């Protein structure tokens, strides 16, 4: 009799825990009615404030459409680059929409969507710099990039001394002042910057192979990652993803 009672109690406890199991992030997002999106807000044309101080950019507009696909509102929270991934870990953000490059190392800690655009990393120097011609020439040189970025990691891998800075504009200022020798960034960000500042005496001297850019969510949140992929697939099929790419990058970079 005691053995039977023990079995019944164990079953009751198991059912109790099953009934109180924590809902997935996707369930919670739909229940509260909004998707919290982490972004920098100062990296044109990916995420920035326009002349009316309205947050916009390619990733901002795609983020809104992902939220719409989920049937919820998009709520953006701006933070420095080095805080974004940590914000996903802590639950502050549900997703990051900020041109995040996929790496195998990052994939150990986050669930990634399928690639939605492809870009290249470029090595930028002052126009009168003839000493640095390739990434290999960075050894012993000074560069600047956001802390925790793949750009900083590449510079360090080539032996550069990296200073950490928040924005691309600040990096270019350091470059013009001669306080750093080079910087690495997205080719698209360079093109966008030069469109707005055609007088700047800077140039690209080397570039990497194409990089997959994806949206990261918290590790284990496979249901949310799948929902993001479903949204991206719909945006591809409708042509909206390519349309936004042309709008913000002046070309379609949604295909490899």
Main features:
10 helices, alpha/beta, D-Maltodextrin-Binding Protein, domain 2, 256 residues, 15 strands, 22% strand, three-stranded antiparallel beta sheet, three-stranded parallel beta sheet
Stretches where pLDDT is under 50 for at least 5 consecutive residues are 1-22
Shape annotation: globular
Oligomer: single chain
Helix/sheet category? alpha/beta
Radius of gyration: 22 Å
Mean pLDDT across residues: 90
Number of domains: 2
Report the order of strands and helices: HHEEEHEHEEHEEEEHEHEHEEEHH
CATH architecture descriptor of the largest domain: 3-Layer(aba) Sandwich
Number of helices: 10
Describe the protein's architecture and organization.
With 256 residues, this protein is of the alpha/beta class. The protein has 2 domains: 136 residues, D-Maltodextrin-Binding Protein, domain 2 (3-Layer(aba) Sandwich), CATH 3.40.190.10; 88 residues, D-Maltodextrin-Binding Protein, domain 2 (3-Layer(aba) Sandwich), CATH 3.40.190.10. It is built from 10 helices and 15 strands. The strands form 6 sheets. A 3-stranded parallel sheet has the order 4-1-5. A 3-stranded antiparallel sheet has the order 6-14-8, with no helix packed on it. A 3-stranded antiparallel sheet has the order 12-9-13. A hairpin with a 5-residue loop joins strand 2 and strand 3. It is globular. The N terminus is likely disordered.
